[in-house]
Amino acid sequence: MKVSDILRVKGGTLFTVSSDQPLMSAAQTMSEHDIGSLVVMDHGDLVGMLTFREVIQQIVKNGGQLGQSTVRAAMDDHPLTCTLSTDLDEVRRMMLERHARYMPVMDQRVLQGVISFYDVAKTVVDSQNFENKMLKAYIRDWPEGESPEQAPKL
Predict the structure, then answer these.
(1) Which class for 137: exposed (0-12), middle (13-18), buried (19 or more C-beta within 10 A)?
(2) CA dihedral 129, 135, 138, 140 (to 10 degrees)
(3) Tens digit of pLDDT for each residue in 127-139?
(4) 149 domain-assigned
(5) Where does the pLDDT of residue 151 fall: very low under 50, low under 70, confident under 90, or very high at 90 and above?
(6) Which domain holds residue 51?
(7) DSSP class of residue 152?
(8) Which of 37, 55, 79, 90 could lock 102 by a disulfide, CB 3.0 to 4.6 Å apart?
(9) Is pLDDT larger for residue 126 or for residue 101?
(10) Spatial separation of the C-alpha atoms in residues 137 and 108, rounded to whole Å
């Protein structure tokens, strides 16, 4: 399964922010839309990723307030990225290694979407459920008089 499969199901709503925007404004956008991340774009280029993790770190750094911080001060300026053709197993490995909850999906230098660890986990579970249903249907429709041991090996 590929990243493109996740985005096809998830849809293409994207929320972006510029690096010079006030962090308070970005946090409000995240809160209003109930999203955990914003892609940071400057002049059409991906320059970072802002998640609630970075917002909280900035609050702690500023003694419990956002103050006059900009997105640039808080963002991850080296976010993990993947492409539409990246295999789902590779995405899981990358996200687990870096403890990344969100990953921008790029095609060349064009942002295609963002996938979350939740999106990846849901896709894996849905895929496993489908496979289980197919296997159970196959077993239920077993030809009479034939044992599973006599079935052709796949």
Answers:
(1) exposed
(2) -80
(3) 777 777 888 877 8
(4) no
(5) low
(6) 3-142
(7) P
(8) 37
(9) 101
(10) 42
